[in-house]
Specification:
By secondary structure, the protein is mainly beta. It folds into two domains: 35-123, Immunoglobulins (Immunoglobulin-like, Sandwich); 129-306, Beta Barrel (Lipocalin), CATH 2.40.128. It is built from three helices and 20 strands. The protein has helices at 2-28, 129-136, 217-222; strands at 35-43, 58-66, 70-75, 78-81, 86-90, 95-106, 112-123, 140-145, 153-156, 167-168, 183-187, 191-195, 210-214, 229-231, 234-239, 243-250, 257-260, 275-280, 286-292, 299-306. The strands form four sheets. Strands 8-11-12-16-17-18-19-20 form an eight-stranded antiparallel beta barrel. Strands 4-3-6-7 form a four-stranded antiparallel β-sheet, with no helix packed on it. The chain is globular.
């Protein structure tokens, strides 16, 4: 009798597993790889007389594909998630150079297809010496959010000229969310290091840390959905290790801008183009930055200072 009950139970369990697998297959539906990837590139300032642009090095890319649900842009080994299929690069190598950008289109169940495009772009911008000296001093400088100053973090309308017009954090208001212990290292060779917890390295190098960001942009780009603590539209203490990237200075439309590669960011993860306009750098050891988030919803403001 016991053996008979065991066989019946095994049959029922097998049936449940099979039904579960069938339901899962139905949930995904047909798995079709993206096809017909089309990539267009619009070079800032390009016209008949200046086919390679106005010298700013700015190029706007748009990707479309059949059966694609999201896109990733890849340049120089760095990946940038762009669910909308739109992304802007600022190419800062002086002179006329050819760049290759690859687009990876993702379909259902994670299947991908890719295509590449080459663009020939002119860059004539050479940053002023006082800016590079301020940013890295000829070797390396470490920056942090200036939490002791009102308005060190906040938001306002896209294109607004009043810092933190709609909200500005008070002194140390965001303590404990994963932002104030971060450090941003700019090296003269163009490399960038984000230390996500500067307090845990006393006994040796510990790369673990947490960051602060926007829900759902931080999950869309960095994965690990549900990690950290969701507080309204913010994600607090999202687990994230130290990482490295690159930086470049450009000045599209005359506005000095720090461009970070991949998913590199400063202060609060907002996705977007990872470009930080330098709104004010008149004060010693301090810069006021702003960036537009990936939703095109807000401009985010940061005051950073050197340690």
């Amino acid at each position: 009798m016991k053996k008979f009950k065991y066989i019946i139970g095994l049959i029922l369990l097998t049936s449940i597993v099979l039904v579960g697998c069938q339901d899962e297959d139905q949930e995904f539906g047909d798995i079709i790889a993206p096809s017909n990837i089309q990539i267009t590139a619009v070079i800032e300032g390009a016209d008949a007389a200046n086919p390679n642009g106005d010298g700013s090095g700015v190029v706007h890319f748009t990707a479309t594909a059949n059966n694609a649900v999201s896109y990733t842009f890849v340049y120089n080994g760095s990946e940038t998630s762009a669910p909308s299929g739109r992304h802007t690069y600022n190419f800062a190598i002086l002179g006329l150079n050819t760049y290759t950008v690859t687009v990876v289109a993702s379909g259902t169940a994670g299947v991908t297809s890719s295509a590449s495009i080459q663009v020939e772009v002119l860059s004539t911008y050479s940053p002023p010496a006082d800016l590079t000296d301020k940013l890295h001093g000829g070797t390396s400088k470490t920056w942090r959010i200036k939490s002791e100053k009102p308005g060190h973090f906040g938001l306002g309308p896209v294109g607004g000229t009043v810092p933190t017009e709609w909200y500005g954090a008070g002194i140390d208001e965001k303590a404990g969310v994963g932002m104030y212990d971060d450090r941003y290292v700019f090296n003269a060779d163009g490399t960038f290091m984000h230390i996500t917890d500067s307090t845990n390295d006393a006994g040796g190098n510990d790369p673990t840390g947490t960051i602060f960001g926007r829900d759902p942009l931080i999950y869309d780009d960095l994965g690990n959905s549900g990690a950290g603590t969701i507080d309204g539209a913010d994600v607090l203490n999202f687990p994230f290790d130290d990482y490295s990237g690159s930086w470049a200075l450009t000045a599209p439309n005359g506005v000095e801008t720090i461009n970070l590669t991949g998913s590199s960011f400063i202060g609060y993860y907002t996705s977007g183009n990872h470009q930080y306009q330098i709104f004010d750098r008149s004060l010693p050891n301090e810069m006021l930055l702003r960036t537009t988030d990936g939703n095109g919803q807000f401009d985010w403001w940061f005051i950073i200072t050197t340690d």
